[in-house]
Amino acid sequence: MTIPGLAGRTLLEPDELSSMVRKFGEAISADHPDGVVLVGILKGSVCLVADLAREISVPCAVDFLALSAYGAGGRRIRLSKDLEADVAGRAVVVAVDIVDSGLTVSYVRRLLTERGARSADVCTLLDRRPRRLLPVDLRYIGLEIGDEYVVGYGLDFEERYRNLPMLVVVEPEALGQVPEGNDAASRV
Ligand code: IMP
Ligand code: MG
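A: This is the predicted complex of the input protein with magnesium ion.
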């Protein structure tokens, strides 16, 4: 698939993402026979949550939260959209696109623990350990990557490319020169 204006290397094709997500669903269902609350962190997890929810065969509630970064270098995080579900006493699986510094996932796990979740496991498509600032325990990991920037399947560069059906490694410097309108959204 050629995307006008997007030069990059395909990291995972759609069928590879499907089988990865199917395995997540099987593992999550086996580990949580009583059911789970699947919590997506917006917006990067939207594709993962939509596909993963359909691969989970135990009772599954779906909810979302959103965070925003602030402060020097965006190193502080606050909740910008809260959950609707009461997670007290429930098994939660947090779905994320990528764990980078680990700040986001650490914040969310602390929040869930404070609210009395019985467990708070993390399911991530990508794990970029070289950039970790906080240690985090990840239960379901799709692929470990190095210091590369990835777009597609929910992951964006300045709000573009979330709609790509595959994951692509790109050079953000090169993307900055893509003219408006010559992006993935203009394909449809
Ligand atoms: P963390 O708090 O540093 O672990 O940040 C994770 C968030 O940063 C992810 O949920 C993504 O939304 C965003 N992010 C980090 N790396 C990438 C990337 O390579 N592509 C797109 N978004 C990314
Ligand atoms: Mg982003």
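Helices lie at 14-31, 46-53, 103-114, 172-175. Residues 44 and 154 are 5 Å apart (CA to CA).
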